[in-house]
Structure formats: C-alpha cells, structure tokens
C-alpha cells in the first residue's frame, strides 16, 4: 500500500510563500502522475497542480504563475512552491498519486487518483 505524507503547511500573510512537501513510501510512485488538490471549508476539493513522471506539469488557472510543482524521483518526493499567496488560497492541501506515468484526459479530477495523503492546512491572512 502506497502512503503519502504532506508537510509544510502553516499560517502566512498575504503575499508570502510556503513550500509543501509530499513524501511517498513506495518506489513505484516515482513513475506515477502526482497531484496537489485543495479543499476550502464548505467547498469541493479542487485541482491545483500535477506533474507526470517526465516532469511535465499542469496547473489550475487560479494558481498559474504563482505555484510551481516539482518532483525528486530519487527521494519520491513532490513539492508545491506557493508564492504570492492570497487569502483565497486558504485550504487543506492534499497530495495524490495516479497509477499512471502519463496524464489522462481527466488529470484535474480527484477521481483519477488512487492514493491520498492526510492533508496539510494552509492559512493565508489578509
């Protein structure tokens, strides 16, 4: 069973930065599509960013130009660098893995991902 553990969340002022990390337990995860999703209180879980095994990335329009997803396959770790944070970025952020090395047509859907972390809270104050 693959396991994902997120870290790096916290409280930051608007305009600040945070870097989230997702440590994966299985070596197979180095060949999976990895994604970040977030869920604000009272809202549905939404796609943030994804990266395939080759390093190709996808972003939600709301974070494009501010967030950067990257991966270190040797360490089976995925990162989400978040800059220019806004209060509307406040949410629980989840790391997820899809058992495919390539993006499907639904890479932005949480139904595509088989493994999930427990989430880490990000709070951006105005």
Q: What integer value in Å does the Rg equal?
A: 13 Å
Instruction: Assign the structural class, choosing from mainly alpha, mainly beta, alpha/beta, alpha+beta, or little secondary structure.
Output: mainly beta
Main sheet record: 7 strands, mixed
Mean of all residue-level pLDDT scores: 94
Oligomeric state, counting identical vs distinct chains: single chain
Total helix count?
0
- Which regions contain 5 or more consecutive residues with pLDDT less than 50? none
* Global geometry: globular
Textual characterization of the structure:
The protein is mostly beta strands and 126 residues long. 0% of the residues lie in helices and 47% in strands. It has no helices and 11 strands. It has strands at residues 4-7, 10-13, 18-24, 33-39, 46-51, 57-59, 67-72, 77-82, 91-98, 115-116, 120-125. Strands 2, 4, 5, 6, 9, 10 and 11 form a 7-stranded mixed beta sheet that branches. A hairpin with a 4-residue loop joins β7 (67-72) and β8.
Question: Which key phrases capture this entry?
Answer:
126 residues; globular
Summarize the structure.
This protein has 126 residues and is mainly β.
